[in-house]
Amino acid sequence: PTATYMHTLFSSTGKLSSIRSFTFYVYVDREQPVPLECQVNASILRPLFALHQLEKLDIGHVPFTFSPTEVRHLALVWPQIRILQIGHDCPRKLPPTLVRAEDLLPFAEQCPNLESLYLRFHIPRASGCLDKRPLFGKSKSRVTSLSCGTSEVQFCAEAAALLASAFPLARLYAHGEYSDETGNAVAAMNNV
Questions:
Q1: In the beta sheet, which residues pair with residue 59?
Q2: Each residue of 127-151: pLDDT tens digit?
Q3: 189 burial class (0-12, 13-18, 19+ CB within 10 angstroms)?
Q4: Could you give the CA distance from residue 130 to residue 135 in angstroms, rounded to a whole number?
């Protein structure tokens, strides 16, 4: 389906304010790059922002392109969300994401019921990789599953500390095919 089709579907769904769960999957050939017209972005999801009681949003097999600001906004529009999974099981060849670990902090701060968060985000290797500092014991986040999807993750002690403090119960996962370096970085971050 094209972005136009998805926008039409999401616009119709957004008018049903009592919806608490929405699942949308597109079946694609994972070996082929996804055409730009099939990528999900914030403008396509905007009609779903009206679903303030939304507890589960699961959009699979569709790559998304969000800015850091747009990702932070998701936590504000869906404060009741328990499961937020956007862009899982996507084809392998995706453009890099601009979303960083610190852009996930609003989910720890604004979404007290969140248990599972799957959004592609990037963790750079360099120290000094964060603008925010760890919360150290202040977070009450219930997230137990935090996934960066198919993003290439570099080990960054600062990012690991930030994620561990913001999501103290969470295990970090990478899904799909990723490099050994990403696998090692994810494992190291889970041991911080």
A1: 24, 86
A2: 555 555 555 557 788 998 888 766 6
A3: buried
A4: 13
